[in-house]
């Protein structure tokens, strides 16, 4: 049997050996190879670059699911910072058709906080529709909300990027994907794509399904959402056929179009590099976000229980609020998890930009990020504090 150290490849800077040890322990404890990457930047400098698993290298690309929402809403944060978008203006003022079915008073701030009530559509979406933000948005505009807009919140799993993206398109004439490419991905050379070019397909490695024990399979079946419940609609289980998450990311059309809710493709290097650029000086460039913009987007602005997931107070504006779940992070930490158990975030207090990506689905923990992120991120922040 391989030693833990034999499972881990890559490098760490002096003082970050504990992060490597934590990553080795995670790989050693997994029953099935998670095929994972872990990258950490501190103050814009890469200090951890690790990977492990027989089918994963440093530059292996895979489906990132809702980590994509972080890239999409970094674009929105930039446009708010530039004065192009106003958080307290009604969505329908930008996108007239959205005002149908009683949605006319919903503000952009409320939309970003997952409060629109349109978490899906009657009858569900086809994969073709979910892959294409414009098709998704067109159906959502006419959809009746599943709760009174602005009065509650629930995770808009497959649709939040299409909704905010249509606002961006109506104002700028360009898609989130185009603005992300021009202002964020290309200037920093990030291996994190909202729309994977055909030329990079050879580097894509399929997302792998969870391999649950019989007991875990029983628990999953017992907790499965009814197709026409709010949760079922949010995860497109009311479609015919219902969306299979593994197959979704492994569909070329999804990767090619880069749907901004769940269609991004990348590496941990790409995700960590994006969050480093958001809060730190990188290659002589000033941070993308001003501190006041970070605070605005990172902090929870509405209190309550998520009607889709049952979680409490998870969202800031477009990003997940993280300091409540990870007490070693500062109050302005912001980021987003992905369905396989992955996580990317920036923590301005410590200067840490963190990305953990895994190809194989882990057993759900009630929050998108796998439980291993707690010890991996804590090890990184602890090492950063004594550097």
From TrEMBL:
Gene Ontology terms for molecular function: hydrolase activity
InterPro entries named in the record: Beta-lactam-related, Beta-lactam/transpept-like, Beta-lactamase/esterase
Keywords: Hydrolase
Keyword Plastid included in the entry's annotation: no
One Pfam family linked to the record: Beta-lactamase
Domain Beta-lactamase-related: 27-370
Top-rank lineage group of the source organism: Bacteria
Record protein name field: Serine hydrolase
């Amino acid at each position: 049997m391989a030693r833990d150290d034999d499972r881990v490849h890559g490098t760490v800077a002096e003082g970050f050996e504990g992060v490597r040890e934590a990553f080795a322990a995670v790989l050693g404890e997994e029953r099935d190879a998670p095929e994972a990457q872990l990258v950490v930047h501190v103050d814009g400098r890469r200090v951890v670059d690790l990977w492990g698993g027989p089918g994963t290298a440093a530059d292996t690309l895979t489906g990132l699911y809702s980590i994509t929402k972080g890239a999409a809403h970094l674009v929105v944060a930039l446009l708010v910072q530039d004065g192009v978008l106003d958080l307290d203006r009604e969505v329908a003022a930008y996108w007239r058709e959205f005002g149908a079915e009683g949605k006319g008073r919903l503000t952009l701030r409320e939309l970003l906080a997952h409060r629109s009530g349109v978490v899906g559509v009657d009858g569900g979406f086809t994969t073709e529709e979910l892959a294409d933000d414009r098709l998704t948005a067109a159906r959502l505009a006419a959809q009746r909300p599943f709760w009174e807009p602005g009065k509650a919140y629930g995770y808009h799993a497959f649709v939040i990027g299409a909704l905010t993206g249509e606002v961006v398109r109506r104002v700028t004439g360009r898609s989130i994907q185009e603005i992300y490419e021009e202002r964020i991905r290309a200037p920093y050379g990030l291996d994190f794509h909202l729309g994977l070019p055909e030329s990079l397909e050879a580097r894509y490695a399929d997302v792998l399904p969870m391999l649950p024990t019989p007991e875990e399979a029983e628990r999953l079946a017992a907790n499965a959402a009814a197709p026409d419940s709010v949760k079922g609609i949010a995860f497109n289980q009311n479609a015919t056929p219902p969306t299979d998450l593994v197959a979704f990311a492994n569909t070329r059309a999804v990767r090619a179009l880069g749907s901004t809710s769940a269609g991004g493709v990348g590496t941990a290097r790409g995700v960590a590099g994006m969050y480093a650029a958001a809060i730190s000086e990188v290659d002589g460039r000033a941070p993308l976000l001003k501190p006041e913009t970070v605070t605005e987007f990172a902090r929870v602005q509405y209190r309550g229980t998520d009607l889709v997931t049952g979680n409490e107070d998870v969202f800031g504006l477009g990003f997940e609020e993280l300091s409540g779940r990870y007490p070693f992070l500062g109050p302005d930490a912001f980021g987003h998890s992905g369905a396989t158990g992955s996580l990317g975030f920036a923590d301005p207090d410590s200067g840490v930009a963190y990305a953990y990506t895994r190809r194989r689905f882990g057993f759900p923990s009630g929050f998108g990020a796998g439980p291993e992120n707690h010890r991996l991120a804590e090890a990184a922040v602890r090492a950063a504090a004594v550097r």
